[in-house]
Every structure is written in structure tokens, then in C-alpha cells.
Amino acid sequence: MKKKFCFSKRMICSLLTAGMITGLTGCGEKAPEAMVDPIDDNYRVFYEIFTGSFSDSNGDGIGDLRGIINRMDYLNDGNINSGESLGVQGIWLTPIFSSPSYHKYDVIDYYEIDSDFGTEEDLKELFEVCHERNVKVILDLVLNHTSSSNPWFLSFAEAHKNKDTASPYYDYYTYVTKETQVSGRTYRQIPGCTDEYYECNFSGDMPELNYDNEEVRQEALKIAKYYLDLGADGFRFDAIKYVYFNDTGKSSEFWDWYMKELRAYKEDIYCVGECWSSDQETLEYVGGLNCFNFQIGQGEGVLTKAARNGQVNAYTGYIVSYQDKVLAENSEYGMMCNFLANHDTDRAAGFLNASTGNAQMAANLLILCSGSPFMYYGEEIGMKGTRGAANTDANRRLAMLWGDGDTVKDPIGSDFPADKQVNGTVEEQLSDENSLYHYYAKVIAVRNRHPEIARGDYEAVSSKYSDLGGFEITYEDSTILLLHNTSAEEIEVELSALTGVKGEYKKITDFVGLGTGASLKGSTLKIGARTSVILEK
């Protein structure tokens, strides 16, 4: 597997010799943190921001782009070695285009920033601020459907009402007659027509575009290029398997074509697709487009179970197997895109408790892993939010708990009880060195100190303990050993007794956890409870 790497093991060794980088002693005592140069590639920790719920700059209660700009020092202060910010190197913004809804997944005009969120100038400034700090920004681009208030759809409906087949919008959306409706799909009558129906599998307010129409395809490219020119680094694509409903072959062919065109326009573009499905179906898309892995997190994902129940070998085996499958489909651009929760799922703090160490262990398993892991805003402070009895996603998208007077409010329709937010605010956690926020910052820093973690080839390592395992990771001429102890007890193990280890490791270079740390005497490793350790030869 060939990947871009900013500095080699040889360069690191020279810095060690010069005294510019230090690691950890054999007893596990932490030395001064290693200096890390920013790496300009797509292997980054991304932070998803539900734009309207993050930070309000103008007092109207709605999060906005200016609010994000104001909070950049919290996310990344521009100095990867400062230890004064969370340290994420990528941001995913949920839709920011004009829309009638609070969530903005039904676009009226792709070329207009919703007035709730600010202006195009605000977006350009956000791009500039982020790029100055080596932070990439991807925009949520909803191409499967639009709002029924979109001028394209209004023109489409008018053309059908008047039977104006010469209108350029006549075939802009998918439509059928009563006799040609396909079982399993959802349709609604075209306004003004008695015998024609448009497809709307998500909602009657979200008509689906027709990608058999070349003009629609070209418009989708035009939109993406417009924002790439403005400064976007890429996109998160919503509902990729619905472009051709229940037709994986045609949908994946579309995304192969689309990504080929975008990469020809911007070679280093970063894109990730939402295919909420099984691994088998998701892998049909990764040849052209990296996709989120929906089997990793949420309440019963393989990572969640390992963090909560200690069965780490199931997790490590899955990671290696899935990474191999992704790279077999896409050896040049393929990577893991893991997450614990997002705006469409219940929040991770509901199934991963910080007081037991489950949340911290999950942070290790998520961040110290291949590819580009994604965090959901507020995850780093243990924010809670579930659909609940009201059965509304608004409860999963609550206002960020800054604790410093930010005027951002919960979205319309939410009713999650405030007294269930038991893990505190950003303000409170910043002042507590043992908080979940500071833990996440430490884990991200560890990842940044070891570029192999994001970019390397993984081989599973196991032990006689079901809750001690990890990976031997090789990148270029560097190989490290990453081990996780997911149990609540310290474990002592002989490195020579580990299955899958090919080299002899002599030095602990990093560890992060809630237990007694880690120490290495000869080949005997002690690793504390809920702790991850990195060793070098």
C-alpha cells in the first residue's frame, strides 16, 4: 500500500539524535511530548458540526458560520504542539445551503448560504482560518434529493402540468405514471397533475433528482466545483445508495463517475459517503468513494462492544479484515472512516459511560486507528441525546454545552431533558485536567505523534487474554506495536507470547489510559486498565 508521508522514520531518528524528540522511559514515565509537524494529507481526525446547534454569534439562538470561526481556538489553535486545543484537523459541516428546515437536508438553492448561518463571505473566511491551521473543511452535499420548494422542482411541476416536454426541467426529477410505479418506492402526485407522480423515498417534501438526465449530472458537478473553487477541501455525500433506489450497481457506477470527475478537478479532494448498510453493500461503493463504516460504532458496533465489554480481539480482527477489503477495492485512496455516533444516531454518551472508563476506551479505539476517524460535536464532553419517546432526531442534535454564555439553543422539536446532561459543559471540563475533553485531546496528540497509526498496514496481534490485543503497524520503514487493554485490571504479559508479533520491541514510546500507565522490563510488559500503549523496536 503506497501512501503519502510527510516525514520518514529516518528523519524522526535524526531528530531524536539531536534531542528534539523524546519518547518514554522503559518504566513508563512520560517524557516531554514529542514535537510533531503538521501533515498535509487526508488522514485526519474529523469533527462533525451540526451547524445550527454549535455556536451562535449573533444572539438569534441558531448556530452559524461566524460562531464556528469564533470557536476555532477550541478546535485547533494552529499549533499542533500547544496542547491548548482539541487538535482536530478536519471539520465536516452539515448542510449550510438555503433550506426551509432546521436540518437543511432539503436544499432550495445550492448556490446560496442559508441566512440562518451567515453569508458566502463567512464561509470563505472559515475556509481561510481553517487552512491557516492545516484544518480541512468538507461540506455536506445532498445530491439525492432537493426541497420541493427548489425552483428546479417548481419548474419541473409546471412543465408537467402544462405537458411542456421541451422544458429543460421536465426530466429533472424521477417520475412515473400510476401504472409504472415500482413496488417498495414512495411517490406523491405532481402538483397540478392527475396521472403523474414524483419519487420521494425520504419525504414528500424531498423529491428525488433524475441522474439519468445528463444535465442533472453536470449540475451536480458544477455545484461541487463551485465550492471547491471557494475553498472547500471536499464533501460528505448524503444517502449515496438512494441515487438509484435499490439499485446498488447503478448507484455505485454514478459515484465512480462523479469521483473520477472531481479528482480530475482537484487531485487531493477528500470525500466520504453515507451508505447506511451492511459491509457487503458498502464495499460496492468504496472503489470510487470512501464510506463511513456503520458496523463500528453506535450501541452494538464492534468498537462499542470492545470498549464496553472488553472483547478486543473481535475488534482488532474486524479492523484488519475490513481495511484489507477496502484497500482491495481502492488501493490508492481507500481508507477506514469510523465513527461512534453522528447526527442521525443516538449520542455515544448514552451507551459509553465516562465514569466507568468505557467512553475513554472507545476514544482510544476510535482515534488510534487507521484512516480518518470522525467525532461528533460534543462527544468530547460526553453530551447526551436520544430520539426518546418523541421519536425526533432533533434530540440527537442539541445545542453544544459551552457553559460560557453562548446563546445557541436546541433545535425545533427537541424535548430532551436538560437534567440528563450529567457530564458537564466545555467550560467545566476545560478546568478539569481529568475530564473527558482533555482525554480526547491527549489521544489525538498521541495519534499525531505516530503517523503510522493513520497510514500504515495493519496486522492483528492477540494474547491469551480476550481483552488484550492490538496491531503491528508498518508504514514505509517504520513498524510500531499498538496494544489495547480494554479490561478494568492491569495486565502483565510477555511480548514473546503475543500472537502475530514479528519483531522484538524494546521501548515504550507512548501510552494513554485511565490505569497505572505502562512499563516494559526486558520483554515483560505491564499495561494498566483501560490503557493503550505504543512500542517501537
Report on this structure.
It is built from 14 helices and 19 strands. The strands form five sheets. The protein has a six-stranded parallel β-sheet, with helices on one face. It has a five-stranded antiparallel β-sheet with strand order 12-13-14-19-16. The N terminus is likely disordered. The radius of gyration is 24 Å and the shape is globular. Helices cover 26% and strands 17% of the residues. The protein has 537 residues and is of the alpha/beta class.
Give the SSE layout.
Layout: H1 9-17, E1 46-49, H2 65-70, H3 72-75, E2 90-93, E3 97-98, E4 109-113, H4 120-132, E5 136-141, H5 151-161, E6 175-177, E7 187-189, E8 196-199, H6 214-230, E9 234-237, H7 248-265, E10 270-273, H8 279-282, H9 302-309, H10 312-329, H11 358-367, E11 374-376, H12 426-430, H13 436-449, H14 452-455, E12 457-462, E13 468-475, E14 478-485, E15 491-494, E16 507-513, E17 518-521, E18 524-527, E19 531-536
Parallel strand pairs: 1-2, 1-11, 2-5, 5-9, 9-10
Antiparallel strand pairs: 3-4, 6-8, 7-8, 12-13, 13-14, 14-19, 15-18, 16-19, 17-18
Helix pairs in contact: 6-7, 9-10, 9-11, 11-13
Biggest β-sheet: strands ordered side by side in the sheet? 10-9-5-2-1-11
Query: Total helix count?
Result: 14
- Please report which band the strand proportion falls in: under 5%, 5-15%, 15-25%, 25-35%, 35-45% or over 45%: 15-25%
Outline the biggest β-sheet.
Answer: 6 strands, parallel
Binned, the helix content reads 25-40%
Radius of gyration: 24 Å
Which descriptor suits the 3D outline?
A: globular
Mean pLDDT across every amino acid position: 92
Structural class: alpha/beta
Low-confidence stretches: 1-33
Quantity of strands, as a count: 19
CA-to-CA gap between the ends?
A: 22 Å
